[in-house]
Design brief:
A two-stranded antiparallel sheet has the order 1-2. The chain has helices at 33-44, 46-49, 54-88, 95-142, 148-164, 167-195, 200-203, 222-230, 250-280, 282-285, 291-300, 305-336, 354-373, 380-410, 423-443, 448-467, 477-483, 491-494, 500-504; strands at 2-9, 12-16. The chain has one domain: Up-down Bundle (Amino acid/polyamine transporter I). With 510 residues, it is mostly helical.
């Protein structure tokens, strides 16, 4: 970086990039609409295998069903809004980019950091559960058991290698594991219906509290507590804009892939919610660490436990691939613009952010060591990590919906190839429901440690940005879009550094 020449804009300082800066941080366009669909489904599908059921413990089946329906509206409104913003800003920044254009550099940093927290924490949780499943399989079939930390290293190493091997490989893998995971869910659904074990009474076997009903055994307020767990049916689908610079036609394909993936996940979520609960029972499934696996066991017995665990592991590994992709591109985009250390955005010969992938894995691994030391995912520390992931997501959701409303008014002349059919009301619906989940964390005592943990992270990172990062920003496409009022910033059409001459007052353009 040429630190000797900077220009202050919007409370931050931009410095000119050295020759070759963006060439060393290039990505390869490899994905069509089905590659993007695979990425979105892969990121989310593990939520059908585990995690969602804890919401039934808070609100009963009826409360969980209401939470699921509310989230359908929330994610439709949100994904339509994100689709419009991503078509207008077809670069990798995603949530950070939207908020940067709407709310300035600080808003962009706060939103981008929320997504980093969400994706790094979610990856760590998936690695933890995947390690548990993998060790159970090898113990049963091979009589080999490894310490948890060894499995964590193996899983992180394998999926860093996969994601670093090239975008084309990542997207093809996402399609394959998504199809396999969906096939497993379809097989489970057919077996559940054919088994004769499904009972409507099982859905409502939670003993209601005094004055409550079988449908809402704990009343209305606990629906708020169930919402974060219902989010596991959809959490991660919002990562699609992070693939913008690796999509052949992001303006067309990201909104389309988002719609197809959303429909896919609604169908699978409803099948699992009804059939898995209807076989095992609401009361019994509410505390299960492996609900889908328990459902298979109820149908065929324990004889095939290792094979069934392998089925569940496939779903977890699919999401591990998808979410790791997300944190790699999120950290890459913030690093390329200078919010994070710039070495994190180097892409090398394979044009993948391998360094960002590795650093995110190190952070996640350290978090897992801490979780394990404090009692594992079955204890308080595990709940903290799970809630950190959801709370980071909710913060990013709220700020993105605020950004959508502001951008409609702030950049009225910006090109919007895709426009949300729900418009501003859709963004408001998604924002209000996200805010409700946010508020639910404050009144749900077990979730409060996650709030403290995220608060500490934000204090440290905001101080680092104030003292260091904001003085070293670069004219990445996300920054150019914001500074130009929505008229610049499509690297596929304009290249990079299109505004350097305007900002620095010289004739150099790339």
């Amino acid at each position: 970086m040429a630190e000797n020449k900077g220009t202050s804009v919007s409370g931050v300082t931009y410095t000119k990039a050295d020759d070759g800066y963006f060439e060393k941080r290039s990505l390869r366009r490899s994905a069509g609409v089905w590659g993007l669909w695979g990425l979105a489904v892969a990121a989310v599908v593990s939520g059908d295998f585990s995690g969602w059921n804890f919401g039934i413990g808070f609100a009963g089946f009826g409360g969980m069903l209401i939470a699921f329906i509310l989230l359908i509206f929330m994610y439709y409104g949100m994904m339509f809004s994100i689709g419009e913003m991503s078509s207008a800003m077809p670069h990798t920044g995603g949530a950070y980019s939207f908020a940067r254009a709407a709310m300035g550099p600080w808003g962009g940093f706060v939103t981008g950091l929320a997504e980093t927290i969400e994706y790094v924490a979610t990856t760590a949780v998936i690695v933890y559960f995947s390690a548990s499943y993998a060790d159970g399989i090898t113990s049963e079939l091979l009589n080999v058991s490894l310490p948890s930390w060894v499995w964590w290293i193996i899983l992180y190493a394998v999926f860093i290698a996969l994601n670093a091997a090239g975008a084309s490989i990542s997207f093809k893998f996402a399609i394959v594991v998504s199809i396999i995971s969906l096939a497993i869910l379809v097989v489970f659904s057919i077996m559940a219906l054919a088994s004769g074990l499904f009972s409507w009474d099982n859905l409502f076997n939670t003993v209601p509290e005094a004055g409550q009903t079988a449908f809402l055994p704990h009343g209305v307020i606990p629906i708020l507590f169930a919402l974060p767990y219902a989010m596991w049916f959809f959490l991660g689908i919002e990562e699609l804009p992070l693939a913008a610079e690796e999509s052949h036609n992001p303006v067309r394909d990201i909104p389309r892939a988002g719609l197809i993936a959303r429909t896919t996940l609604i169908v699978t979520g409803l099948l699992v919610l009804f059939l898995n609960t209807g076989i095992i029972g609401a009361e019994e499934i509410s505390g299960s660490g492996e609900p889908l696996l328990d459902g298979f066991r109820a149908i065929v017995g324990d004889q095939l436990a290792a094979v069934l665990a392998l089925f569940a592991l496939v779903g977890l590994l699919a999401s591990l691939q998808g979410i790791m992709f997300a944190y790699g591109r999120n950290m890459y985009s913030l690093s390329r613009a200078g919010y994070y250390p710039k070495f994190l955005s180097l892409t090398g010969k394979r044009q993948t952010p391998a360094i960002a992938l590795f650093v995110g894995a190190v952070i996640g691994f350290i978090a897992l060591i801490v979780v394990d030391a404090l009692g594992g995912t079955g204890g308080v520390a595990g709940a903290i990590v799970l809630n950190i992931a959801v709370w980071g997501a909710v913060i990013a959701y709220i700020l993105q919906m605020v950004s959508f409303v502001l951008l409609r008014k702030k950049f009225p002349n910006a090109n919007r190839p895709f426009k949300s059919p729900w418009g501003i009301p859709g963004a408001v619906i998604a924002g209000v429901l996200s805010l409700a989940i946010f508020a639910g964390f404050f009144i749900n005592e077990p979730a409060r440690p996650a709030i403290v943990a995220i608060f500490v992270v934000y204090v440290v990172m905001l101080l680092a940005f104030a003292l260091w990062g904001r003085k070293r920003l670069v004219l990445a496409p996300e920054e150019e879009y914001a500074l130009s009022g929505g008229l610049h910033g499509d690297p596929q059409k304009e290249g990079y550094d299109a505004m350097e001459g305007e900002v620095f007052g010289d004739d150099k353009k790339k």
